[in-house]
Amino acid sequence: MCGQGDAPCFGETRIYCFLCPEFSQLTTQGVDGKEFPEPHLGRWYFIAGAAPTKEELATFDPVDNIVFNMASGSAPTQLQLRATIRTKNGLCVPRKWIYHLTEGSTDLRTEGRPDMKTKLFSSSCPGGIMLKESGQGYQRFLLYNRSPHPPEKCVEEFQSLTSCLDSKAFLLTPRNQEACALSSD
Known about the structure:
Blueprint: E1 9-10, E2 16-17, E3 42-51, E4 63-72, E5 78-87, E6 92-101, E7 107-110, E8 113-122, E9 128-135, E10 138-145, H1 152-164, E11 169-172
Antiparallel strand pairs: 1-2, 3-4, 3-10, 3-11, 4-5, 5-6, 6-7, 7-8, 8-9, 9-10
Organism: Felis catus (Cat)
Subunit structure: Interacts with LRP2; LRP2 mediates APOM renal uptake and subsequent lysosomal degradation.
Family: Belongs to the calycin superfamily. Lipocalin family. Highly divergent.
């Protein structure tokens, strides 16, 4: 019998149970500039997304690749993000926003988006990190890596974990085109 919060069970005559693999939530407690966010600053590549429905990933359908840069903000509780999105039709779309660290919590709040909450999680994949974004009407998991082409097993582990967490839709960015240059402003 599965029960007791173990995880999803499949099948009617034969029951398959498994525990969702654990993943560690990164903490922002004791933000001192060393423990967090220092290891997470710098360049990241968006690799894949997962969500309960396709609609929650629709914003990524036209994307070939995205490169991000995370930097310390003007205040100790801020992170500045810059991104450049390469669309499948070759256009480069710059974006930037500010995350506010929530003291004593693992939540990041996006400036100008009070409904959006982001949580950071570690990844078993070397150079990887996973985010859980939730807002009004959506929830999605996003996989990032320091390399634009991480080992295939990293993507497989992410897909397996998010499937276990009830994400039925999965999107892998093609990453067929060269990443756009990040602006320095």
